Amino acid sequence: MSWDVFSARIGSEYHTGFEDVPFFMWLDDGPYRELTSPHWFSAAVFGILGTLPWLPWSPQFSLRTLLIATTLVAVVLGLIVWLR
Fold it and tell me: What is the CA angle 16-19-20, rounded to 5?
């Protein structure tokens, strides 16, 4: 499975009339899967994620806690890749 990005100008020959499609759409057509979302949604999600480091969190996390959490995330991602 590979990733592919497609964008078309409104009014071009490739434009398929996205105004008829709901804001969020999931298509599972055989070997292809497609997730459609509006641009404002992606901008809002990444904007919110970008502001998270500036929120006042508890400073109780040590370097040891950070290394343990990073190791656990790496193990989980490694298992996901290995099991596919």
Answer: 80
- Domain range for 63: 18-83
In a domain, 72, yes or no: yes
Q: How far is CA 46 from the centre of its chain?
A: 9
The continuous run of DSSP H or E covering 27 comes out as: strand 25-29
What's the pLDDT score for residue 11?
A: 56
Whole-number Å distance between alpha carbons of 18 and 36: 10
Is 13 inside any structural domain? Answer: no
Predicted confidence (pLDDT) per residue in 13-71, tens digit: 554 555 555 577 777 877 777 777 777 788 899 999 999 888 887 677 788 988 999 99
CA 22 to chain centre: 19
**pTM confidence score:** 0.43
